[in-house]
Amino acid sequence: MALRLPHMVPSDVPREAVPRPPLPLTVEGGCHCGAVRFRATFRTYDASDCNCSMCTKKAIVHLIVPKEDFTLLRGKDALSTYRFNTMTAAHHFCKTCGIHAFYVPRSHPDGFSVNGRSVEGIELSWFTVRAFDGQNWEASVHTLR
Ligand SMILES: [Zn+2]
Q1: Domain count of the chain?
Q2: In a domain, 12, yes or no
Q3: Rounded CA gap, 22 and 20, in Å?
Q4: Could you tell me if residue 5 is inside a domain?
Q5: Structural domain span for residue 32
Q6: What is the rounded CA–CA span in Å between residue 41 and residue 101?
Q7: How far apart are CA 39 and CA 14, in angstroms?
Q8: Sign of CA dihedral 138, 89, 125, 41
Q9: Confidence class of residue 137 from pLDDT cuts 50, 70 and 90?
Q10: Does position 10 have pLDDT exceeding 70, yes or no?
Q11: Is residue 3 situated within a structural domain?
């Protein structure tokens, strides 16, 4: 019989579902090394999963918020930014650990897309994740706005 410490939960036992809190929900998140931290407020449980060349490689779960619902707590100088194609989206990532915690999406240049995988204290199962056809961006963008 293996020693099982109280905080260890075997992976084959379903975790008790954490109930979805009421909205608005204010959360914090950041990169892996801790250089980049943000706070965001979600007013919906809408999320999107984009199939473009960038989002698939990063496995981003997009939680899009207006700029007034996003605060960069620290790490402005820790970020680097990658741009491609139309150069509109600002794909920020931590220069130290490489994690893409949030960025400015082409679809919402006045807001932010928080990467749901970089937010602490939430369950992605709370969100309704809609597929976004980023491979056909111009024809699809109306579905996000
Ligand atoms: Zn980092």
Answers
A1: 1
A2: no
A3: 7
A4: no
A5: 25-144
A6: 15
A7: 29
A8: negative
A9: confident
A10: no
A11: no
Ligand 1 centroid–CA 33 distance in Å is 4
What is the distance in A from the centroid of ligand 1 to the CA of 115? 14
**Ligand 1: distance of its center to the CA of 39 in Å?**
16
How would residue 123 be classed by pLDDT, with cut points 50, 70 and 90? very high
pLDDT tens profile 50-99: 999 999 999 999 999 999 999 999 999 999 999 998 888 899 999 999 99
Residue 13 maps to a domain: no
Assign residue 84 the CATH number of its domain. Answer: 2.170.150.70
Beta bridge partners of 42: 25
Alpha carbon of 138 to ligand 1 centroid (Å) = 32
Which two structure tokens, joined as six digits, stand for 96?
């130290």
- Strands of the chain, DSSP E: 25-30, 37-42, 46-50, 62-66, 70-74, 79-82, 91-94, 102-103, 111-115, 128-132
Q: Ligand 1: distance of its center to the CA of 31 in Å?
A: 5
Spacing, Cα 29 to ligand 1 middle (Å):
11
Give the residue carrying structure tokens 């150069």.
Answer: 87
